[in-house]
Amino acid sequence: MRAYFNSLLAIVACVLFAACVNKQGKEHFIPTIELASDNWTYDPAISDEFNQNEMDINKWYDTNPTWIGRAPSLFRTSNVSLENGMLVLTGKREEVADAPEGYHTFTSAAVQSKQKVLYGYFEIRCKPMNSALSSAFWLYTPDSVKQEEIDIFEICGRNDVDTMYSHSYFATSHFIIHEKNWAISDHVAHKTDYKLASRFIVAGLKWTREEIVWYLNGKEIRSRRNDFWHSPATINFDSEAFPSWWGLPSDNDNGGRFEIEYFRYWSQIKESNASYKN
Length: 278
Hints:
The protein has one helix and 19 strands. By secondary structure, it is mainly beta. The protein folds into two domains: 1-26; 31-277, Jelly Rolls (Sandwich), CATH 2.60.120. Strand 10 (135-142) and strand 11 form a beta hairpin. Residues 1-25 have low confidence and may be disordered.
């Protein structure tokens, strides 16, 4: 009987292992939403499980290479780390000697992909920061003519003035034409019955030529027609201060940790799934 039981355990282990390995012996993963398996493919070259000892410098910058953060919070590479199989972005109440003018009181963190992608399904499992310093996951395409941005989420994990913010999952899209001073900027504030910073959540975005769809824990929370977002974009995680939106952290809010367990990316086979160097 024991031999039979051990054999059964071995079979189960093999099945579970096979579920995470494709025919070429590479890892693959199942998204929390339903994607047609014959039309979408997991891309390990863009994805990251964050289970290394150090940041994969072929995939990521440990800051935003073109921006130092939203004043008064300053991005610092020392606020980015890999710990216990997670990417951790830390926000702190601290002063930095010789900080640029306007930057004081808080430091924060940013990570940006070195490659750009066009369309796909993007998913992370994360725990937002329990702070009014934001936790954010977004796609970004700036150039001299226009700015394209899809905010998969922006979260204020704690607000000691208006507790509504800690339950609000902001799903946003921006499109700006610089010379014409013309912009579209809209968002949906999806409300949850729990504080978003109180637990791990799964955030997803499906971006195709035809539509953009936002998901929280496998459920659709917003969709819109894709009128403008058709340029390769960088993948970004960051934490910012928002003094003119939900306000700076209270005196009792000293920052926190935005923890990301994984980032996974699937490309649509019929679409362009090439990656683009910055």
